[in-house]
Amino acid sequence: MRPFFCLANATMKFLLLTLSRWRVEGKENVPRTGPLIVVANHMSLADPPLLGASVPRRITFMAKEELFRGRFSRFVMEGYGGFPVRRGQLDRQGWRRAFETLKNGGALAVFPEGSRNPDATLQPPQPGVSHLAARSGAPLLPVGIAGTEQVRGLGFILKRPRITVTIGRPFLLPAVSGKPSRSALDQDSRLIMERIAELLPERYRGPYASRANTGGAHGN
Description:
The chain has helices at residues 2-19, 47-54, 71-79, 92-103, 128-136, 156-159, 182-197, 209-214; strands at 21-25, 36-40, 59-64, 82-85, 107-110, 140-146, 162-167. It is α/β, with parallel strands linked by helices and 220 residues long.
């Protein structure tokens, strides 16, 4: 599906430049090789291809199973390197594929919140991404997406919304050898959301505004 990925990426970049005021900041922070977990906030169905067009790495996406039920959406998601994961339950096959992607030195994109934000502000994350990062030892690359909440219906074309993708510096979570405790997962999950919040305008930060303002998430 590599040719599809390249064509879809080129098409997405053209659409972004034509229909929006798209800007990417922090591309220099992206490691060009090695395992990487890209974590970003999620507001629109446009976010996965937007990440693919904005991050200078070939990305594999973990996506909710519902996106693979329709023929067209399944074709698009698989073309972008996506694979389904069942939410709210242990999906061994999905997580096995995620670990294999990282073990092979690939870049894996995950939306920690698990679904799109209903009001564009950050929501509490699912614990899966912190477990994945802690067990794999892979660095996380935080990305803040602003503006895609305006991509709804065809009316957004007339507005040419300002879409900004801000890429932060990669960081590591403490590695674990056994099963991490729930409190450790919660702490790591909050750290991940704080790193994303730092890259977003105030109005998007939600419950993570205070820590982002104080710079509490800086440092490895």
